[in-house]
Every structure is written in C-alpha cells, then in structure tokens.
Amino acid sequence: MVTTIHFEQDKFYIRHVLIHKKYES
Fold first, then answer.
1. What's the pTM?
2. What whole-number distance in Å separates Cα of residue 22 and Cα of residue 7?
C-alpha cells in the first residue's frame, strides 16, 4: 500500500528532523 510506504517515510523524516534539532541546540 502507498499509505504504508508514506507512513514509513514520515517516520524517517521526523526522526531526521528531531536528530537535526538535537544537534543544533
């Protein structure tokens, strides 16, 4: 399903953003 792949990409993106913010602070 496309939604499942999209959801996985979302989790990946969110984790990437969180890691970036952690290193920025």
1. 0.47
2. 22
